């Protein structure tokens, strides 16, 4: 399996269970790449929706993908603190400079004080029926919502106190390197 190299630019491709593209982030800088984890960063990157609409992300973000967990985490660095947007998703695959995953609708929004809300339960139920999510996927996702909320409460992974400082510092280093080249 290919592994992205630190400093490499990759795209992020989000799909739906039926195989259709959902959303593409045009450019993310890899800060760490292993067979199990990809940590990246982007800022003011172009996002293309499935219907062709485009928009730019507003703030710098650190993104966290894991090959063994059914969620990914976007850490958005805002003036009033770090907000986290967590997608319940398939584990990522890395292929041809693209990080790919299936988005399963359920999201968890985490605020700087570590309070959180589960979002899009109605969308999940609608798509579960429409796209015929198997029962095994439903069970895996519900277990992973519990795992993710445990991480939030325990301040594990991207929710750990020093995670953001370590990876934003690394991102600044790469931005300076790119500015010199």
UniProtKB/TrEMBL annotation:
Family of the protein in this entry: Belongs to the Ntdp family.
Broad enzyme group: hydrolase
GO molecular function, one term: nucleoside diphosphate phosphatase activity
Keyword annotations of the record: Hydrolase, Magnesium, Metal-binding
Listed Gene3D superfamilies: FomD-like
Active site positions: 23
DUF402 domain residues: 18-156
Binding site for Mg(2+) 2: 105, 107, 120, 123
Keyword Amino-acid biosynthesis: no
Pfam families referenced in this protein's UniProt entry, alphabetically: DUF402
Organism annotation: Edaphobacillus lindanitolerans
Protein name: Nucleoside triphosphate/diphosphate phosphatase
UniProt binding sites for Mg(2+) 1: 87, 103, 107
HAMAP family to which the protein is assigned, alphabetical: Ntdp
Membrane spanning stretches: none
């Amino acid at each position: 399996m290919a592994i992205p190299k630190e400093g490499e630019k990759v795209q992020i491709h989000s799909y739906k269970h039926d195989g259709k593209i959902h959303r593409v982030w045009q450019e993310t800088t890899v800060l760490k790449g292993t067979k199990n984890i990809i940590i990246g960063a982007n800022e003011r990157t172009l996002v293309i929706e499935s219907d062709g609409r485009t928009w730019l992300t507003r703030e710098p973000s650190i993104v966290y993908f894991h090959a063994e967990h059914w969620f990914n985490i976007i850490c958005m660095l805002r003036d009033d603190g770090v907000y986290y947007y967590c997608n319940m998703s398939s584990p990522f695959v890395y292929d041809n400079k693209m990080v790919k995953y299936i988005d399963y609708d359920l999201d968890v929004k985490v605020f700087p004080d570590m309070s959180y809300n589960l979002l899009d339960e109605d969308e999940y139920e609608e798509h579960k029926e429409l796209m015929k999510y198997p029962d095994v996927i439903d069970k895996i996702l519900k277990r992973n919502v519990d795992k993710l909320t445990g991480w939030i409460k325990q301040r594990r992974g991207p929710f750990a106190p020093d995670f953001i400082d370590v990876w934003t510092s690394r991102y600044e280093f790469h931005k300076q390197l790119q500015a010199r080249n």
